Amino acid sequence: MMLDEQQVQQLLRLKRFEQPPPGYFDQALHEFHRRQRAELLRRSAFRIWWERTASGLFTLRVPNYAYGGAFAIFCVMATLVGSGVFNLPPEPELASSPAVGTVSFGASTVAGRLTLNHKFEWADLERAARLRLAPSIAPSSTSLPRYVLDGRRPVSTEASFNF
Amino acid sequence: MLNQAAYRSHPVPGRAAAIEVIECPGVMPRLSRMAGVLLLLLSTAGFARSQDTLASISADVQRIYESAKGAVVRIESEDDFGKLAGTGFLIDPNGTIYTAYDVGGESRDITVEFGSKRYPGHRLVADAKSGVAILKVDANTPWIPLGNSDELKLASPIVSIGYPLDLPATPSFGLIGGFDLKYLNRYFSTTLVRANLPVQKGEAGSPILNLKGQAVGILIRSIGNESACYALPMKAAEKIRADYVRYGAVRPGWLGVSVRERDYAIKDSKVEVSSLEEHSPAENSGLRVGDTLLQVGQVKVRIAPDALNVAFFLTVGDRVPVTVVRDGKDLTFKLTVADMPASPNQAPSMLIPGLPSELRSPAEFPSYP
Is B116 helix (H, G, I), strand (E, B) or coil? Predict the structure, then answer.
């Protein structure tokens, strides 16, 4: 809302007679310092840590050749990762029926296929879904069989004498 | 030395008697030496005889083991709880195998291993009540001849050959400990052979062999911390196989007779007919309530639990003679065994859990080779 000239004059007359409370200017500096300290205490611990670390790093004297060394290490690591040296060796493909694969074998197969330089394929997810995620008692190629001597059911069940 | 002296009574004046020790050098040493030699000879002869007996038993066991081990098979399969392994044995050259129900009764993906080769196996029939399963592999096989389990006596020596754990075929030697129809207050479906024979895990389904090398039983479970076992007599196993051959399935027979035990015996039998089912073969034959039962088929009846053996060996379609005592007279009736009527307590052998539903109908079973 825009004030007209008469209204502005009235406002200036009112302002002319405004006075701060007694001692206002004497306390102004003290109040400023108090609010500054309160603002410092309100900051997060992470921000305080970051400011101290940054100020400490700026005061640290790093030799110039360290920057060159760090850059050289970065280049070597990038070359190695790009060449596939760190990739896991490819797992052998399952035989004709993938459904009989065990959990551990199948899981390692999927892990082996999803390497850095391997292009993601939906077939990987389908393959993982086909794996039978059975409990630990489920059969596997490595677990020992249950050697049978006594069955789970009693042989003796008869109770009445009729025929 | 006392043993070198002789004693004799010698009258002494003023005393009733006195003992005079007379030294006889040469007599006692000779006697004692002869006794020592005799004792040595006897003990040597006894030791040699016991050694001969042990050697003879060992030779018998080795002979049986060598002749039968080729027909004892390791069975591996899978059920809902995972892989399992047990033992079985071939009974004919066509690859028919007897094993325990717990090994091959409900499992799938059956693999039979013998002679360092593995063959896929399939189940012909299984009977949970008796604890036996009959499998088959399609191969020409060695086999163990079957013996007469009725000839087994208390303390008869027996040998079993099984596959404990993942170990090779292993023989065990023991004695028949008894013939039990009841164990820990529960009744078996038929009398089982209790063998004092140490067994180990994986040996369920092993053959129990007599000293002729004939299979007379099938190991079906252990007792007493695996220090002994129960075996199904071969006669009972053959009844299951005969049912399969005739009908393609186990078909327990039924006459419709209920029995109870009296306090007194008539002609050695305490069993009397307590009730007859309506429209049953027994009712139609002329049997009456109160008749004293003496024999059904080949099974003699003395006490009420003998009815279990009677029921087990009834085969549908057979004509069986039933001998009773009525008013002091022996009477024999001929009854035709009927099918067990369907009921909630139907024999589990008729259900054969795990068998494909299309094979549960006897008409669908393949003919026995």
Answer: coil
Residues of chain B with Cβ-Cβ distance to A151 below 8 Å are 100-102, 131, 204, 220-221
Is the CB of A155 less than 8 angstroms away from the CB of B307?
no
ipTM: 0.70
Report the half-sphere exposure of B368 (CA within 13 A, side-chain side): 17
What's the pLDDT tens digit per position in B295-326?
999 899 999 999 999 999 999 989 999 999 99
Residue A127 in this model has a pLDDT that exceeds 70 = no
> What is the C-alpha to C-alpha distance for residues B292 and B323, in angstroms, rounded to an integer?
9
How large is the average pLDDT for residues B7-33?
Answer: 52
Nearest to B70, CA basis, from B149, B131, B161: B161
Alpha-carbon torsion angle A27, A31, A32, A34, nearest 10: 140
- Reported as a single tens digit per residue, the pLDDT across A23-35 is 888 888 888 999 9
Q: Average pLDDT of A85-109? A: 43
Q: Which of B206, B191, B183, B203 is nearest to B71 (CA)?
A: B206
Mutant choice from A140, A141, A143, A156 vs B, greatest count of B C-beta within 10 A:
A156
Between chains, do A161 and B308 touch, taking CB under 8 Å as contact? yes
The alpha carbon dihedral of B339, B340, B346, B348 has a sign of negative
| DSSP bridge partners of B253 | B339
Give the 3-state secondary structure percentages of chain B, helix then strand then coil, rounded to 5.
Answer: 25, 40, 35
Q: How many helices (H) and strands (E) does chain A have?
A: 6, 1
Of A143, A147, A153, the CB nearest to B202: A147
Three-state SS for A29-57 is HHHHHHHHHHHHHHCCHHHHHHHHHHHHH
Residues of chain B in contact with residue A147, where contact means CB-CB under 8 angstroms, are 84-86, 164-166, 200-202
Q: Which residues of A touch B222 (CB under 8 A)?
A: 149-150
Q: What is the DSSP letter of B288?
A: -
- Residue in A29, A135, A87, A163 with CA at minimum distance from that of residue B257: A163
Cross-strand pairs, B325: B292, B330
Give pTM, 2 decimals: 0.60
